[in-house]
Amino acid sequence: MMKKITLPYGHEQRTIEIPEANLAWIEGPRHAVPIPDIAAVVRHAIRNPIGSPTLAELVARHGKRTLILVDDSTRTTPQKIVLPILLDELNAAGVPDSEISGMIALGTHRWMSETEIAARVGEPVLRRISVTNMSHKPEDFVDLGVSPLGIPIQLSRRYLETPITIAVGNIIPHMYAGWAGGAKMVQPGVSSAITTGRTHLIAGPRVYEILGNVDNEVRKEMENIAIKSGLKFIVNVALDASGTVAGVVAGDVVKAHRAGIEIARPIYTVSVPERPDIVVASSHPADRDLWQGFKPVNNCGMIVKDGGTLILLIPAPEGIAPDHTLLVDFGTMPGDMVMDLVTEGKVHDEVAAATYLAFDRTRRRLNIALVSDGIPDIEARKIGITATTNFDEALAAALARHGKHARIGVITAGADIMANFTGKESERYAEVCSESHHDV
């Protein structure tokens, strides 16, 4: 008997079949209790900030000029819902639309087109304020010295020179920060590639330890930078499995963020009683390219038994890593060699190196097979993995490798999950997470 399972695949869906005798479990983000009036919840959060002054109090202290940091289309924050309400609340606090602008906090991601920005924030918002991409020009960053870990702090001049800054994002488990949201809109959101590269190099080899752990040195680094740079306010949402708002927090970059994690944690924590030989996962919502797909590669790869196989369904219309082609150039180079090149100053894209280190840690443990219409096998093999457009072909190869009785787990949306194991599996998972990694 075959079990039919429908998984998200970009803006579409794919239905796959898995032998019921092999199926260990099906897991993924949870659905939350529906909120009848999402706008009212957003408005209530903004009017009742956690650990920070209200918008009116911020305006009284700092003036009216306001910059809203907006995440790009690689994230699922419902900006079209949140931004109009935030603008109304700023108006009520005495800030006219003419004093407000928005900036896409790109980090090292590519610029968004005008069409993409309009789709992201909505035409009603663009009729009220200007929303533009963050500049990547070196002269448009300001040097603020070094962080406690010795990382150069270079932030957007426009961000630093605006009296009131508000970051709007979402809270999900994240392999580099423990959890997304909060200070992550500053680092890496409005940081230079140098700052982001150095921070990611600390996180890259340690993603197994960092994912879902808010008390880690990278998160502390990000929060120190956000506080030092003067981020005034956050509005963060937690979304459920359907992408519907499950909760909203606003206020202090640390205190409000922690409250948001408590909403998000039960949604994104998957309970897994068994580490299977094979995990089949949708990359959703990290679908654009494999660069985003490295999140589900690592999040879901942690769950697979050593020597097992991860089959990742990812459309990847933009290929492997269009913004960070150096990652492909590294090929199958051992992570230690990449770190040696970084140390010798021979790597111009340290963000690519950091992501490669995270990917390499999982690739050394597993076989990774993509089911993708955007990445051909010849390209995938350059980085030591395989690709096919046919799921049945990928599953047959995995079963041939691990035997006809191999156990199979399925993750419905792999980009934003973290695993919680029980019993002996918990002990083994702890061993996987504490395995030696490359020191920076």
From TrEMBL:
GO terms for molecular function: lactate racemase activity. Residues 9-201 form the LarA-like N-terminal domain. Gene3D superfamilies: 3.40.50.11440, 3.90.226.30. Residues 276-418 form the Lactate racemase C-terminal domain. It holds the Pfam family LarA_C. It comes from the Bacteria. InterPro entries: LarA-like, LarA-like_C, LarA-like_N, LarA_C, Ni_dep_LarA. PANTHER family: LAR_N DOMAIN-CONTAINING PROTEIN, LARA-LIKE N-TERMINAL DOMAIN-CONTAINING PROTEIN. This is Uncharacterized protein. The lineage of its organism: Bacteria, Pseudomonadati, Acidobacteriota, Terriglobia, Terriglobales.
